[in-house]
Inverse folding.
């Protein structure tokens, strides 16, 4: 689906019976890194975007715990579209240097994010023009 190896679908193991479903997430197994930070997005406005940034060093996995949204990734050359849905056993992995935007949130969507780094504001690239300069500098 993604031509860039720094963006890929993560398949989560899930088990179910008449009592319900159990989904497991294990670091360095299901998730390709050691988890240092966990956070989630909720009470999301349908007409607003979230994320709209890139990270200089950190990796992320996004998982829809409830609902769905569209995810747009940009690697500096190509744009990739992905629909994150709670009805699948999938998440979206992306490595550092990938611009990410979330949009078109279904009612009551909750997005879980897993990161390999603790929060550091200096790690974020929040302006798209700055991101393009960052990518140009990385390719020299």
């Amino acid at each position: 689906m993604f031509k860039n190896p720094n963006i890929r679908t993560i398949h989560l193991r899930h088990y179910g019976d008449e009592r319900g479903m159990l989904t497991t997430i294990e670091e360095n197994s299901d998730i390709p890194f050691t988890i240092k930070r966990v956070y989630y997005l909720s009470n999301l406005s349908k007409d607003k975007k979230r994320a709209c940034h890139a990270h200089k060093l950190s990796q992320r996995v996004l998982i829809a715990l409830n609902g769905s949204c569209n995810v747009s990734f940009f690697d500096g050359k190509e744009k990739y579209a992905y629909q994150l849905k709670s009805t699948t056993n999938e998440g979206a992995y992306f490595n550092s240097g990938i611009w990410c935007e979330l949009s078109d949130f279904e009612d009551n969507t909750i997005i879980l994010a897993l990161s390999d780094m603790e929060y550091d504001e200096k790690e974020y690239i929040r302006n798209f023009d700055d991101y393009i300069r960052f990518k140009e500098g990385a390719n020299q």
